[in-house]
């Protein structure tokens, strides 16, 4: 039976979290959008007398994400009021509000320890019956929820949306060992019928299906082409429009995904394998690490392989 989702909470308001919240909100589902409390207010906020004690400043990351969604409306197909259905908040002050939602989606940075710590915090406010899922690109669903109770793990699974959620129809569902079958089937039906997704069930293996293949393709292209001195634009012209993929050429895709996120995703396979040949493919090129160190994270930071227009 289709899962009934009246309200949802998305935790993490970055590239994917804000996009997922927008997609849910456009489907008529009110959404909390939570993020961490930023360390310091900006100079401008301080000048206005705002400190981290003020709720608006404490919820700045999520509030800014909602403002950006409102201004740039991610899809012409979204209705005009979609952003009004997203309520921003922060993890320190507003996490208890998840007791009133039917689905909590974890969409924070691709790091096992961060996700484990977050799930423990979520479980402290979780009410049985609420589905909890992770948007991880490929971290083990089992490992992530290892410290949680059996009851929680029966309600926990991977729901892997693709970037950008407004256009990408694919959604991988990744059940854990204990996930209840009716939660998997109920979420599948919900994601297909209410969110318009094409759902594929994947096993809990490093990077599941799509990113196991996709990361491989991107890394091989990167290593081959950069080593041989091809220009970024040339490679994109061939791997994008010429292959009938106007928006998903190699380097543009990396900028869209986020260079830091891509490094985490590639590392996930690298660290999970003992196979030397596989390690050689999934070793992240030094050039990418250098970009992360410089803060060239792709579209989200304004500079990646391309400068954001
Ligand atoms: P992002 O860098 O845009 O956003 C990450 C968010 O995590 C930020 O809002 C940040 O404030 C928050 N965060 C950072 N440290 C945290 C902490 N200690 N506790 C709680 N929150 C913290 O990343 P993203 O691209 O939105 O990726 C989020 C998740 O979605 C990752 O698991 C990623 O692998 C997955 N994903 C990403 C893509 C993509 O193309 N970028 C696609 C599919 C899945």
Question: Mind explaining what this structure looks like?
Answer:
There is one protein chain. This protein folds into two domains: 8-201, 3-Layer(aba) Sandwich (Rossmann fold); 212-300, N-(1-d-carboxylethyl)-l-norvaline Dehydrogenase, domain 2 (Orthogonal Bundle), CATH 1.10.1040. The model has no long low-confidence stretch (mean pLDDT 94). It contains 15 helices and eight strands. Strand 4, helix 6 and strand 5 form a beta-alpha-beta unit. It is 45% helix and 12% strand. The protein has helices spanning 15-26, 43-47, 55-58, 60-72, 91-94, 112-125, 141-144, 150-154, 181-193, 210-227, 232-239, 250-257, 259-272, 276-282, 286-294; strands at 8-11, 31-35, 86-90, 103-106, 131-134, 156-161, 170-175, 198-201. It has an eight-stranded mixed beta sheet with strand order 3-2-1-4-5-6-7-8, with helices on both faces. Helix 10 (210-227) packs across helix 13 (259-272) and helix 13 runs antiparallel to helix 14 (276-282). 42% of the residues are buried. It is globular and about 55 Å long. The chain is of the alpha/beta class and 309 residues long. The chain binds nicotinamide-adenine-dinucleotide (NAD). Residues 12-17, 35-36, 61, 107-110, 114, 118, 135-137, 162-163, 257-258, 261, 265, 300 line the site of nicotinamide-adenine-dinucleotide.
Summarize the structure.
With 309 residues, the protein is an alpha/beta fold.
Number of domains: 2
Strand content: 5-15%
In the sheet with the most strands, the strands line up as 3-2-1-4-5-6-7-8
* CATH topology assignment of the largest domain: Rossmann fold
Q: What ligand species are in this complex?
A: nicotinamide-adenine-dinucleotide
Overall SS class: alpha/beta
Q: Tell me what the CATH architecture of the largest domain is.
A: 3-Layer(aba) Sandwich
Tally of individual helices: 15
This entry's quaternary arrangement is: single chain
Global shape: globular
> Separation of termini?
46 Å
What composes the largest sheet?
Answer: 8 strands, mixed
Give the % helix.
40-55%
Total number of strands? 8
Mean pLDDT over the full residue set: 94
H and E string: EHEHHHEHEHEHHEEHEHHHHHH
CATH superfamily of the largest domain: NAD(P)-binding Rossmann-like Domain
Radius of gyration: 19 Å
Uncertain regions spanning at least 5 consecutive residues: none
The CATH class name of the largest domain reads: Alpha Beta
């Amino acid at each position: 039976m289709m899962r009934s989702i009246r309200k949802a909470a998305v935790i993490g308001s970055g590239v994917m979290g804000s996009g997922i919240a927008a997609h849910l909100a456009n489907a008529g589902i009110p959404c909390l959008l939570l993020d961490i409390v930023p360390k310091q207010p900006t100079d401008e906020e301080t000048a206005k007398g705002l400190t981290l004690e003020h709720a608006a400043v404490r919820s700045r990351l999520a509030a800014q994400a909602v403002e950006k969604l409102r201004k740039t409306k991610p899809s012409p197909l979204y209705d005009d009021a979609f952003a009004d259905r997203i309520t921003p908040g922060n993890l320190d002050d507003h996490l208890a509000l998840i007791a009133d939602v039917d689905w909590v989606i974890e969409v924070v940075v691709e790091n096992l320890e961060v996700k484990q710590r977050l799930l423990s915090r979520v479980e402290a406010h979780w009410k049985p019956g609420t589905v909890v899922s992770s948007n991880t690109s490929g971290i083990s669903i089992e490992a992530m929820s290892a410290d949680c109770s059996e009851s929680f793990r029966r309600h926990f699974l991977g729901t892997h949306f693709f970037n950008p959620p407004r256009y990408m129809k694919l959604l991988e569902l990744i059940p854990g060992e204990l996930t209840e079958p009716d939660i998997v089937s109920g979420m599948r039906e919900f994601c297909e019928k209410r969110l318009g997704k094409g759902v594929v069930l994947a096993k809990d293996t490093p990077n599941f299906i799509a990113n196991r293949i996709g990361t491989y393709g991107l890394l091989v292209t990167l290593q081959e082409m950069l080593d041989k001195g091809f220009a970024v634009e040339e490679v994109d012209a061939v791997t994008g429009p010429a292959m009938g993929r106007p928006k998903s050429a190699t380097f543009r895709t990396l900028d869209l995904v986020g260079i830091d996120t891509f490094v985490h995703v590639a590392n996930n396979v690298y660290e999970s394998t003992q196979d030397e040949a596989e390690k050689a493919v999934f070793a992240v090129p030094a050039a990418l690490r250098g970009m992360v160190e410089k803060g060239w994270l792709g579209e989200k930071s304004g500079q990646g392989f391309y400068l954001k227009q």
